[in-house]
Amino acid sequence: MVTNGRSSSVTKLLPPTFGRRHLQCLLMFLGFAAAFAMRVNLSVAIVAMMDSKAANPNFREYHWTEKTKSRILSSFFCGYICTQIPGGILARRFGGKVMLLSSISISSVMALLTPIGVDFGGWKLLCFMRFLQGIGQGVTVPSMHTLLAKWSPVQERGSLATYSYSGSQFGTVIMLATSGLLASSSLGWPSIFYIPGGLGLIWVVAWIVWGASSPSECTKIGAAERALIESSLRDSVKQDDDKSTLPVPWKKIFLSRPFLVLLVTHCSSTWCFWTLLTQIPTYMKSVLAMDIKSNALLSALPYFAMLVLGLACCPLSDYIEKGNRLSVTTSRKLFNSIGQWVPMVTLIWLGYMTRDQADLAVVLLTFTVGISTTLHLGFQVNHIDLAPNFAGTLVSLTNCAANVSSIIAPLVVGYIVTDTSNPIQWRKIFFIAGGINFFGNLLFILFGSAKVQPWNDEKVGKNHEIKPLKVEMTSDVPITRRESQLAV
């Protein structure tokens, strides 16, 4: 190792500006982008599949009923829910790298086989392939949380998680913005499956080469960066790197108030988000006479705003947490309040728009979806705060419950909105979604926490609140960035 010849016994650690932890986050960003592109591609491709004249008439057209269409679109989420909880357990046992690799591989292969499969087996085989895609992608979020728990220094946890999960918005934006062009091109609607599927397999190769489950398994990481990550995590709480992982303390998890509050907050946020995602296009078409689904740019705009605002908030999170200006608990509650209470207000406001205010309605919709990206710096990273050893397991539990909310929310809309052109009925929906969002965040403010829970490691007998790390190492640690990068 390169050493410092000065007499001082303590020197500061200076890791590389762009290190292996950033490379892992970049790869997770691209992997999540590919996953979401393959998740939303059918919702836009099915329009061309059922009406080839609106795209490229040289490709086969399928005459499915709306009931069949709904079955096809929902089949992905049936599989997605099934592997949420097993995904968290498997990610802890086999490592985040293996599980994320399996997730994207399965999804990519199914995407590539979709055009052939639907031609051979019709809508039933298409449902089965989408179900398998859901099975594969069900482990994506637990795997990424497990990876982030191992790779993120405590003071960078919020920003690195946001960078990684912003891939979902990137993939959605790219898919929505290009799908119309692809369907109308000489490649036709099959290209909406071939291109993201092919890119997914390219990502798989890159992940095999450069991905790693933890710094200890990465042979290319520099000594300085590894020391920064491991000392940060060690100072916050002991993490279990042994392959024979600690048994999951199921009873203590479900009796933990911070976890139960986190679960409710996740469900409330998902209810609001899926109300927006699934119902706002119908509301704007029926009440405001504006069909945003027919406009690819307008469809992608909210997710583009979400991507931009999310990336813009990361430096602010680093400034707050690295400078020790707020405790991590306060920071989580601040960003979560922005992500849930601001959309609550704008969502209700949206319900009072009239037809001559359609442009303002689009602005409100874009802002409502965009500002919710701050949730990445709120409850969505809180699983790692509570239990780094069980981060994947915790997110699999809350994500599974949240997906039940995503199923119930549209059913409530169908029960209340009997006349889609009636703005009064829609306002009830907006008030319900806003009230649920308000209640979820209120609980998070009152009872949420970023303290590591005792059941994270039974050997740890007390709670530890995560504190920004002030890194100091002994004199054999490099003191210049160049020396840090050269150290072995």
Secondary structure topology:
Blueprint: E1 10-11, H1 20-50, H2 66-82, H3 84-94, H4 96-137, H5 140-151, H6 157-165, H7 167-184, H8 191-210, H9 223-236, H10 250-254, H11 257-286, H12 296-322, H13 328-350, H14 358-371, H15 382-386, H16 391-416, H17 423-447, E2 451-452, E3 464-465, E4 473-474, H18 481-486
Antiparallel strand pairs: 1-4, 2-3
Structural features, described:
- The structure is a single chain.
- The protein is mainly alpha-helical and 488 residues long.
- 69% of the residues lie in helices and 2% in strands.
- It has 18 helices and four strands.
- A two-stranded antiparallel ribbon has the order 1-4.
- Helix 3 packs parallel to helix 5 (140-151) and helix 11 (257-286) packs antiparallel against helix 17 (423-447).
- The relative contact order is 0.16.
- The model is unreliable at 1-11 and 460-488 (pLDDT under 50).
What is the CA-CA span between the terminal residues? 5 Å
Strand content: under 5%
**Helix and strand element order:** EHHHHHHHHHHHHHHHHHEEEH
Net shape: globular
Number of helical elements: 18
Structural class: mainly alpha
User: Low-confidence runs (pLDDT<50, min 5 residues)?
Assistant: 1-11, 460-488
* DSSP strand tally: 4
Q: How much helix is in the residues?
A: 55-70%
Radius of gyration, in Å, reads 23 Å
Q: Averaged pLDDT, please? A: 82
